[in-house]
Each structure stands twice: as structure tokens, then as C-alpha cells.
Specification:
95% of the residues lie in helices and 0% in strands. The longest helix has 135 residues, at 12-146. By secondary structure, it is mostly helical. This is ATP synthase subunit b.
Length: 167
């Protein structure tokens, strides 16, 4: 076997030293380079994972805030619409109240005008009645003065009545 190894150009002593050197280098690299590098990579993975988790949380919070904002906007729109409807109703109510007041005032004014007209009519009738009485007395006086016959008296009465009607 020794010959076989020599035919390939391998020497035992060098091979053993190479294996020992490889083991020492492997031990040193694994102890001082591989473990710290592995730890750094692991720490980096944790940081990236934490950053991704934080980003997800921020994304969720952002989504929640957006939903909350949309809900508030919808509530405000609804509230504004309700206020608009209430304002329209109040406006219509005010219009109907003002219309009713105007109609009531109009009726009151018409009633007052009718009442005044009736009162004036009564006053005119009283005045007319007193004038008719005065004319009747004057007519009777004239009739007695002239001693007029009945036909003449009826004619004078008719003329007095027509004179009163023309006034």
C-alpha cells in the first residue's frame, strides 16, 4: 500500500501533517470565524425579522387608522346629511308657520274691515234715519202750511224719498 500511495505521489508524513494542519485551521476557523459569523448572521436575521414584524404592525396600524378615518368620514357625512334634512324640515316648518300667520293676519284684517264697514253702515243708517225724520217733519210742516191735498202730499213724499236715495 505504501507503494501504491507513492505511485500517486502521496507521502504518509506529509499527509498526516496536512490532516493535522487542516484540523487546526478548521478548528481555528470554526472557533474564531465561523461561530462569530454564524452569530452575526443569526443576529442579522433577528433584526430583519423584527423589522418585518414592525413593518407588518405599522401596516396593520395604518390600515386600522385608514378604516377609522373612513368610518369617521362616513359618520360625518351622515351627520351632515341629517343636519341638512333637519334644516330643510325647519325651513319648511318656518315657511308653513309664516304662511299660516300671514293667512291668519289676512283673515283678521278682512274681519276688521268687515266690522268697520258694518259699523260705518250702521252710522250711515242712523244718520240717514235722522235725516229722513227731519225731512218727514219738514214735509209735514210744509203740508200743514199749504194745506195740500192728499195727491199733492203723496207726490211730495215720493220726491223727498227720491232725494234721499240720490244722496
Amino acid at each position: 500500500m505504501d507503494q501504491l500511495l507513492k505511485s500517486f505521489g502521496i507521502e504518509w508524513k506529509i499527509l498526516i501533517w496536512q490532516v493535522i494542519n487542516f484540523a487546526v485551521v478548521f478548528f481555528i476557523l470554526s472557533r474564531f470565524l465561523y461561530k462569530p459569523l454564524k452569530k452575526a448572521i443569526h443576529d442579522r436575521e433577528k433584526k430583519i425579522s423584527a423589522s418585518l414584524d414592525a413593518a407588518d404592525k405599522l401596516k396593520k396600524k395604518s390600515k386600522e387608522m385608514e378604516d377609522e378615518f373612513k368610518q369617521k368620514m362616513a359618520d360625518q357625512r351622515k351627520e351632515i346629511e341629517e343636519m341638512h334634512v333637519k334644516a330643510r324640515a325647519a325651513n319648511e316648518k318656518l315657511k308653513s308657520e309664516l304662511r299660516a300667520q300671514a293667512e291668519e293676519e289676512s283673515k283678521r284684517m278682512i274681519t276688521e274691515a268687515k266690522t268697520r264697514a258694518e259699523e260705518e253702515k250702521k252710522e250711515i243708517m242712523v244718520t240717514l234715519e235722522s235725516e229722513v225724520k227731519m225731512l218727514a217733519i219738514a214735509l209735514a210742516g210744509k203740508v200743514l202750511e199749504k194745506e195740500i191735498d192728499e195727491a199733492k202730499e203723496k207726490e211730495l213724499m215720493k220726491s223727498a224719498i227720491s232725494a234721499l236715495k240720490s244722496k
